[in-house]
Design goal:
about 140 residues, mainly alpha, Four Helix Bundle (Hemerythrin (Met), subunit A), 6 helices, globular
């Protein structure tokens, strides 16, 4: 089955929706599932940034990945993030905890990992949103 290519603005909408759903899971102490879902919010924000930076309506095939570092690079934001050490450390924390493979983890993440992850995630999402607002 051929996948439909998403528009950049659709990625922003998906990011908001999955983050809201992840927060619901967090409130209901579904720590591991909340982390798993929330990671996609960062992924979608980065994919939207790629479309915006490159002036494209849809995401190019080479960026149809879950690799957050690859997406950050594709958006041209690595050096900019490195200039903000707190955000860079937060992004590193997100990438250390999140990956699509966590859905198969034999031992699920608990409360402490979720608190750490969501703290880092909040910082990264806020930073990405601020960049998107300045770019409009």
């Amino acid at each position: 089955m051929k996948r439909k290519r998403m528009k950049g603005t659709a990625f922003e909408q998906v990011a908001r929706r999955v983050l809201a759903n992840a927060r619901f899971l967090l409130r209901h102490r579904r720590w591991h599932s909340a982390i798993y879902l929330a990671g996609y919010a960062v992924e979608c924000r980065l994919k939207a940034a790629i479309c915006r930076v490159k002036g494209l309506a849809t995401l190019p095939p080479e960026y149809q990945t879950h690799d957050l570092w690859r997406l950050l690079e594709g958006a041209g934001l690595v050096e900019r993030m490195r200039r903000d050490p707190d955000i860079f450390k937060a992004f590193e924390r997100v990438t250390r905890i999140w990956g699509t493979e966590i859905r198969y983890a034999p031992k699920p993440y608990g409360r402490s990992e979720a608190v750490d992850f969501f703290d880092a995630l909040r910082r990264v999402i806020t930073w990405l949103e601020a960049i998107a607002q300045r770019g409009k």
